[in-house]
Amino acid sequence: MTVRNFAAEDFGALVRSCGNCSTQYQRTIVLENVEVTAPADRLVGINENFGDSATFRNITIIGDDDRDITICQKYEGTEGGGDPDETGSDPDGTHCRYSSSDITYQ
Predict the structure, then answer these.
(1) 89 phi-psi bin (left φ>0, alpha ψ -120 to 50, beta other)
(2) Cα(1)–Cα(31) distance, rounded to whole angstroms?
(3) In sequence order, which residues have a C-beta less than 8 Å from that of residue 66 and are 6 or more positions away?
(4) Half-sphere exposure of 23 toward its Cβ, with a 13 Å CA cutoff?
(5) Distance of CA 6 to CAs 17, 60, 93, Å?
(6) pLDDT of 44-54, one tens digit each?
(7) How far is residue 8's CA from residue 100's CA, in Å, rounded to a whole number?
(8) Contact, 70 vs 95, CB < 8 A?
(9) β-strand 85-88 against 70-76: which pairing, if any?
(10) What confidence tens digit (pLDDT) does each residue in 69-102 have?
């Protein structure tokens, strides 16, 4: 899934891989030229155990002075129920693909 040239505000998650669907698939997400305005919880949530990845390019975040919005939340997804566990949110080059130069705060 690619989200390009898009703006969003006041949301929970902009994109979230299903964390507990009965059948799971590997998902590849790209956010490019996206502007988000706080409040928000996270830009993307992915399941690293199913091989999901999210790539971020030219992201602008407005009104998040404390940098509370999570860029990329990783989960351990489940199949067929149960809540997925959070496993981290740092860029790792494999699942969460971005560097500080990809994210601009205003």
Answers:
(1) alpha
(2) 9
(3) none
(4) 0
(5) 19, 11, 24
(6) 999 999 999 99
(7) 20
(8) no
(9) antiparallel
(10) 999 999 999 988 889 999 999 999 999 999 999 9
Q: The tokens of 26 are what?
A: 């590997």
- What tokens appear for 17 in the block? 């891989």
User: How far is residue 46's CA from residue 87's CA, in Å, rounded to a whole number?
Assistant: 10
Contact yes or no for 31/3 (Cβ under 8 A): yes
Task: For residue 41, give the nearest of 11, 15, 62, 63 by alpha carbon.
Answer: 11
Q: Where are the beta strands (DSSP E) in the chain?
A: 2-16, 28-47, 53-62, 70-76, 85-88, 96-97, 103-105
Nearest to 56 by CA among 39, 38, 69, 68: 69
Q: Which two tokens stand for residue 71?
A: 């860029």
